[in-house]
Specification:
Elements lengths: L4 H29 L2 H10 L4 E2 L5 E12 L7 H4 L10 H9 L2 E6 L5 H7 L10 H4 L3 E9 L3 E5 L4 E9 L7 E21 L2 E22 L2 E12 L5 E6 L3 E6 L8 H6 L8 E11 L6 E2 L2
Length: 294
């Protein structure tokens, strides 16, 4: 039977399309067998190479716990299981306590009270559902040895007054007043040896407006946009941690309104009935997660 020219063209076109389709499928399957498909997927997932981590870097986890001041877990239930004596020097401890600050050292296996606080649960009862739902927030930082980082511990104060007990007979009380202020804990980590690091804490009050200021750094003085800073050097302390161990910092019981502990970890107004606990954990030093560029 003779085919018309139009039918012949359609038949040829159909055969060509069929051949292309079969060849295409074969090529795709062959590519998958040779690993090209896998390579393409790999290229899509890992677009950028990993950035190597500095040898002197330390991974630190920072967690804030906010609880009502009436929570029994903030008192002896917690501190009977926390090492205060071995955490810092005795003179530093007395000075901090006089100014409303409390520092403790916790092993890699935290006591039950701290575990409860970190889990935002209270098995002791007496707390409302609203109190139980207060904020627990945290973040993970990579710190280089000797390079400081700032941890904000309070909200901004339009105006505040700070009374510091100096322990000096000639000037036992130092009075400072600030406007547009915020309390900050400056943390500097120093690698002592494998698995051990010394964390240096300096309480600071940042106040005023942001301006370009000369700031000391590891490579000299540099211009940075920052506020006025009032470091509380007499309240500076150090804690030595092994990987997995923690330092906890908060206000003392019965803290005075204008003390450092009150300004840093309590607050004013509606926040005056809430107490913060700062938990800093040395989580890693050698086998740290790689950081990828974005």
């Amino acid at each position: 039977m003779k085919l018309s020219p139009l039918r012949s063209c359609l038949l040829v076109l159909t055969l060509v399309l069929l051949v292309v389709k079969i060849s295409g499928c074969a090529l795709m399957e062959e590519s998958a067998v040779f690993g090209l498909k896998k390579y393409a997927e790999k290229q899509t997932v890992n677009k950028l190479p990993a950035i190597p981590v500095s040898l002197d870097a330390m991974q630190v986890e920072i967690v804030f716990i906010e609880r009502p001041v009436t929570d029994p877990l903030l008192g002896s239930t917690l501190w009977d299981e926390v090492d205060e004596i071995g955490a810092i020097e005795l003179m530093d401890q007395e000075n901090l306590n006089q100014n409303g600050l409390r520092v403790g050292h916790v092993s890699s296996v935290p006591p039950r009270a701290l575990q409860t606080l970190l889990g935002l649960k209270s098995h002791l009862g007496g707390l409302s559902r609203e109190d139980e739902s207060l904020l627990l927030s945290g973040r993970r930082l990579m710190l280089r040895s000797g390079v400081p980082t700032d941890i904000k511990t309070s909200d901004s104060y339009p105006k505040c007054k700070l009374e510091l007990l100096t322990g000096d007979d000639t000037e036992p009380v130092e009075l400072k007043e600030f406007e547009e202020a915020q309390c900050v804990m400056r943390v500097k980590a120093h690698k002592v040896q494998d698995g051990w690091a010394k964390l240096e804490f300096t309480p600071e009050v940042h106040y005023g407006t942001q301006q370009m200021r000369h700031t000391p750094t590891n490579i000299g003085w540099q211009l940075e946009s920052r506020r006025n800073t009032s470091p509380l050097y007499n309240q500076k302390f150090e804690v030595t941690l092994n990987v997995g161990e923690m330092a906890i910092i908060t206000a003392t019981e019965g803290v005075k309104p204008d003390s450092a502990g009150h300004l840093f970890f309590r607050g004013e107004g509606s926040k005056s009935d809430i107490q913060k606990i700062l938990v800093v954990r040395l989580s890693n030093m050698s086998k740290m997660d790689v950081v990828r560029s974005e």
